[in-house]
Every structure is written in C-alpha cells, then in structure tokens.
Amino acid sequence: MLHSADRILTSHAGSLPRTPELLEANEARVPGGAGAEEFDRLLRDAVVDVVRRQREAGIDVVNDGEYGHAMTHSVDYGAWWTYSFDRTGGLEIVDDNDIHVPKRSTPGNVVLTSFLDRRDLAAFHDAYTDPSSGIHLADPDLPPPVFPAATGPISYTGRDAVSSDVANLTAALRETGAAEGFVAALSPGSAARIGNHHYASEEEFLYAWADVLREEYTAILDAGLVLQIDDPSIAESWDQINPEPAVEDYRRFVQVRVEALNHALRGLPQERIRFHLCWGSWHGPHTTDLEFKHLVDLLLSIDAGAYSFEGANARHEHEWKVWEDHTLPEGKLILPGVVSHATNVVEHPELVADRIERYAKLVGRENVIASTDCGLGGRVHPQIAWAKLETLARGAELASRRLWA
C-alpha cells in the first residue's frame, strides 16, 4: 500500500453514489432479469467515470465505488453486506428464518438479537418512527426485509462477479492513471449474521464463511489490487445484544470473529490488506455505541496492514485520544475518518486538517491516510458526497503543508 511519504494521502471507506442509470440497470442483477449485457457495459463505463471523478476530487487511493455490489435504491445501508448473497451457494429463503426474532443474552453467553431489537432503536423509538426526524432507516413497524439462511454447506459462487470487479477497476486505474485501487469484501463475522440452519455451532459457521470469503480475498489480491475487509460486526454488534453485555463478554464474542478473519487471511500479504471498522452507518443517535478504547487492541490484532475507522462523527471524534495509549505497530497505517457520512454539513478544510494533524502527531505523518468515516454512497445526497471528498482533499493539502513545513 502507498504511504504518505511526502504529503498526506487521501482515500475513502468504499461506497460512492451510484448514477440513476446504474441504479435502474442493477435490476438486471436479479436472477432471471433482462439486460445483463447492457448492465455489464454500463458498469464498466461507470467504474471508469467514478475513478476519474475521485481523481478529480483529489483522492489518491481510489476504488470502484462498490458499483459491483448491487444497489437498486439511492438510500441503501446494506449493499456492502447483501451483495454476498448472490455469491454464495447453500443459502435459501426459508419460512422459519429466525434472524428477525428478538433474542436475549445471558452473562457469559452473548448472542445477537434481531436488527430491529437494537438498544439504540428502543431508546429512541419515537425518533426512529417519525418520518420528520431525519433518521433514514426502514420503518420498524413495517415488515422486515427478507434475508436468506444457510440450509446446507456454503460455497463461493462469485468468481465471475469478483472477476468483473477487479477487471473493471484495473481498467479504470489504467485509463485514469490512478496509482492504487482497492476492492471491498465482506468479513466472516458480518457474513455470519444471517440465519444458520446447517452448521452445528456459531463458530463452525464463522469458519465456513472464512473459507468461502477467502476465495474472494485471494482473487482481489491476485489481481494486484488492495483488499479492504468491511466488518461492522466488530463494533456495531454491541448494539444488537440485549441486554447490554459485560464488556469482557463482548470482547470474547469479538475475539472469535477476529480469529475467524485471521484464518481467512492466513498467508495473504498483509501489506495489501486494509480493515474497516465502523459502528453502523445509519443516521441515528448511536448512544449505545461501544467506546473505541475497548476495541482498539482487538483491531490491531487483525492481520492487516492498515486500519480504517470512524473518527469524524459527533459520537466518536474524541476517540483520537486512544492513540495516546496504543502504539501503532511498525509498518502499519491508519485511515481515520476525517469527514463523516452522518451529517449533511460539509466539513471545512481547516477542520479536516486539524483532525489529520491530531493523528499524525501521535502515530507519525507517514502512517496516516486521510479517509471518510464510512461509505458515502447511499448515505448522503450525491452532491454532498462529492463535496465531502473534495473538502477531504483540501484538508489533506493544508495538513501536509503544516506537517512537512
């Protein structure tokens, strides 16, 4: 991966706004849908365009906008996850899938409850169910979305899809002259949040996902690209456990997921792997988020060369201070979020520069790549998303002048 050798480099967390044409054409990705060839052509052109636009905005380490991950609506918080359903065998829609049934944990036995049983939603139910509140999330009083469950041994069936992802991004890098590109892929811990009707234990299910997803990881790395692991399960799952668990119980719950991920990454080049941690990208209060200080050592135990995390939103900006007490291992990078997906306010470049400098002074300027908290596509209006990337680049320029003065 590139390092900030003589200036602060810029990147982002993954998802970028899709064009209306691409959103409409994504319908062709539904099994049996028409227009697959037209979609493939449109997708290739769209990836070139989005990479070019990232470069014009001042982004150094670019990606395909996650355009290969199907999204059919302009607001979609789940495309980073649901894309995996079409790339995995052994999954089916079943009548008795209990993923939406509320569950309760006990001391020493942490289990995920349903998404709509989250503690944040319960605490702010009136706000979440008020269309005028500004919280963009499915109405919890409506029928929940339908997800598949594992009904047999799972297997990777996404070779053609990931080949398309890497081919489209590689062509776009070549055409635009971008120096480095990354492709995002799901973590085992996040993948295993669907229903399990086949495996004998949660751990067995996690490791089955690790073996499946390793094929996608390897395909991305073999193409010469950077692999980004998307894993909200490390931090976000805390809010999906009822009642609130003891921190040490939760850390044990997370540790199993870290070990499964490291199993999937075994022997792969850490220097071309980056890991993304977030607390969930929906626009809500997030008062039940777990503090970063309880997770940072687990984050650093993941076999990656760079770590991306939220650092700009109002709930987590203060947590840059964890780097006063934790040493970044030699050769590793951080990609702190210095602009946020959680507000329509476009950050001032001076504020972005201040945020960058805090991290640079603690871990070394060469070890910081300025990034976004989370993906911008599907979270904020496209015009605002691109303005945020531009202010990110301008803030990095300001910080660079000061740090290399």
TrEMBL record:
GO biological process: methionine biosynthetic process
Cross-referenced CDD domains: CIMS_C_terminal_like
Domain of life: Bacteria
Domain Cobalamin-independent methionine synthase MetE C-terminal/archaeal as annotated: residue spans: 199-383
Gene Ontology molecular function: 5-methyltetrahydropteroyltriglutamate-homocysteine S-methyltransferase activity; zinc ion binding
InterPro entries: Met_Synth_C/arc, UROD/MetE-like_sf
Protein name per Swiss-Prot or TrEMBL: Methionine synthase
Organism the protein comes from: Kocuria turfanensis
